[in-house]
Amino acid sequence: MSTASVPLPNWITYGLMPLLNLLMAFLISGLVVWSIGEDPVEALKLLIEGALGRGDAIGFTLFYTTSFIFTGLSVAVAFHAGLFNIGAEGQAYIGGLGAALVALSLDHYVPWYVTMPFAVIGAAIFGAAWAFIPAWLQARRGSHIVITTIMFNFIGAALMVYLLVNVFIVPGKMAPETRTFLPGGQLPKLDWLMAWFGLKLGPAPFNVSFLIALVMCFLVWLLIWRSKLGYEMRTLGISPSAAVYAGIPYSRTVIIAMLISGGLAGMMALNPVMGSSARLQVEFVGGAGFVGIAVSLMGRSHPVGIILAALLFGILYQGGADLSFEMPNITREMIVVIQGLVILFAGALEYMFRPAMVHLYQRLKRA
Amino acid sequence: MSGFRNKERRRRVSQHPAIELVGIDKSFGTVHANKNINLKVEKGTIHGIIGENGAGKSTLMSILYGFYQADGGEIRIDGKPLTIRDSQAAISAGIGMVHQHFMLVENFTVLENIMLGAEGGQLLAKGVSGARKELKRLETDYGLDVDPDAIIEDLPVGKQQRVEILKALYRSADILILDEPTGVLTPAEADHLFKVLKVLRDQGKTVILITHKLREIMAITDEVSVMRRGEMVATRKTAETTVEELAELMVGRRVLLRVEKGEAKPGKVLMSVKNLTVKDSRGVTMVDDVSFEVREGEIVGIAGVAGNGQSELLEALAGIRKPASGEILLDGKPIAGADPARLRALGLAHIPEDRHHMGLVLKFEEYENAVLGYHRDPRYGRGALLDLKAIRAEAAEKIEKYDIRPPNPRLKTANFSGGNQQKIVVAREIERDPKALIIGQPTRGVDIGAIEFIHRRIVEMRDAGKAILLVSVELDEIRSLSDRILVMFAGKVVGEKTAEAGEQTLGLMMAGIAA
Prior knowledge:
The structure holds two protein chains of two kinds.
Chain A: H1 10-35, H2 40-52, H3 55-80, H4 88-106, H5 112-141, H6 145-168, H7 191-196, H8 209-226, H9 228-238, H10 240-245, H11 250-267, H12 270-277, H13 288-298, H14 303-326, H15 332-348, H16 354-366
Helix pairs in contact in A: 1-2, 1-15, 2-3, 2-14, 3-8, 3-11, 3-13, 3-14, 4-5, 4-6, 4-11, 4-13, 5-6, 5-11, 8-9, 8-14, 9-11, 13-14, 13-15, 14-15
Chain B: H1 3-13, E1 19-28, E2 31-41, E3 46-51, H2 57-64, E4 72-77, E5 80-82, H3 87-92, E6 95-98, H4 110-115, H5 124-142, H6 157-170, E7 175-179, H7 187-202, E8 206-211, H8 214-220, E9 223-228, E10 231-237, H9 243-251, E11 269-279, E12 285-295, E13 298-303, H10 310-317, E14 325-330, E15 333-334, H11 340-345, E16 348-351, H12 355-359, H13 366-369, H14 388-401, H15 418-430, E17 436-440, H16 448-463, E18 467-471, H17 475-481, E19 484-489, E20 492-498, H18 503-510
């Protein structure tokens, strides 16, 4: 309380403090690694190499990053309107259905760049539709959005398994998945972009949806800080009573914010479905929706912060996978522990160092 | 306690001042909030600190209470230099604070609130019985009676404040700081508070009273210090000064303490309310079958003790609360149940009672609040996007015209003082040139200089032929601004008087005794 209102320069709030938090997370993670009898320095080296050491490693890292940007933006947009959308996971899953339907119906006839805009719209509409019901329930019936979106994750997962097993499955095949899309339904890899930096992408599925994600970052920035709708969302998010006073319609704003949020989550599906596996599979989201919550939290719900946080989680995902391969003692679960520590320090304990920083800053300024 | 012991105690402790501040200095970035402040508060006195909002009173008290650390200078309590690192340290130094906005847990009992943070061990039972005894003693010593088992939210504001005072006394505070204590009280409650403060003083406690109401300073303080723009400009014995001198010291120039206005020239009826009934969220009737009219070019004041339906009436007129029944006409058009956006478009501006929760989004930058409610207007951007350049330019203009300080549209609204925040709201609503204006508590928590300014703007609006409805719990304000006064009691309009009606008459009507 005593230091909360003391202003700090932005480079401390947005630069130094997140770095300190991250350092703290890695320190504790190092202790954990050390306690199971492995060398933490070696582990860190393997993790960084595994994520950034080679062209294909970077490619995988950016592939994960792409997914996290979409879901991070999704959570952030809802958050600005005061809504905690836990349902990005399910919205992305259903978004995959939209993308796949477009790809399946167009890939025979047109090249990928014609399919792409329709797929973006399809994924967004399906994701938004899945967010609409919880949004409507929140706006008109007061059902809490956290509860309903969690429930809709389960409903979505069950629905998708049903559809894949009973409707989309290729006759005679065992795997519950659609047929493989033709090139007209795939998003090409970004070999050329990597080549600019003298890197080889190799087998990594880093694809065009990364660029779509960057465009979305810009559009979300435009929406939140430059548009009338964004102004209304922020007013509602910060002060619902001021929103009433200003004549900002609660239901409409809640529903629109959730539709945009769901749409962004749905677009995440473009990356794995059309950019990587070229088919719709069960469980393709793989937790990216939940990582999006951490990414948004860490990125302070700002697109630039979200890109950086998504990159960090991309590194942890890719590097972590590599690390558990190289150091068998460090299991997949261990990696989750490390990711959890990062979320804890960077997200939940974001202001832990603030009082100390304030004292230090004031002392330095006085000197 | 006998008078004799009392006197002796005072003599014993009076060698050192209770509080001595020497050269206190504090800056926030480029804002120099406290400049080399020196202050001596003698023991067993009531010491007033006045100054306009933003003069640095609150910063100074926050330093004293450990919320902020001074950049330089020394605090001496009872003659001993002391570093007050946090409120815990302040409490153990015997300083208690009663904040303007109470720091109470609403759904706890009085006793639980008083014990909070001083429970005395892991198990509550022992602490509870001890606290109950102590509370009883404080009650009898200071005449602060309050039911220890009452839930805070069921208590009237005056009693809640008493709980805050008890909380400080329970922590054996010798020095009590009260920040704008009468802002939320009825005249009767304020009188009672003053009695309590006098008892506290006579018992040897030291009281620091921060206020902008000169009348209160004159009524109960022994000494008064005046702050202006971060500096302590004067300290006077209250008996040796006048209201006029203090006002001039505060503002730095002569101020008009009365509103100067000519005769009203009422035109046609612009707003009319017919048989309006409004219920609150629990279904309790708050406004009961109320009818009245407001004409162009007149100010109709609604007097009443807070909580008699004025707030709900305002909210219904502003479209924030749907009326249960009845009719509201604005310039002949029925507007009951219309939403605030439509009402603004029809030319009805609204200065809400509570700028923190309604009139402003405190986390927004100033310019963002300068368009709140009007942000859909094409002049702030034609399409879906906001024209930030236009908005900031207009905000800068209003800042200049309304002398909003600091003059920075990019500053977070929370960092403006109360008076300047209110000016942001007033500027936004008045500059739209509405047909009708409904105003709630226009000068709550606002300093003299700004009050004078806001009052003048309201009268100017009247003279420009606008219909104005004014709700205020400050009877002085209602009497000096209004052309006609309606008195509300228990949801009904119990009578109408002219501005010449005496305070006595209106006070009785407000209490529901006479009509």
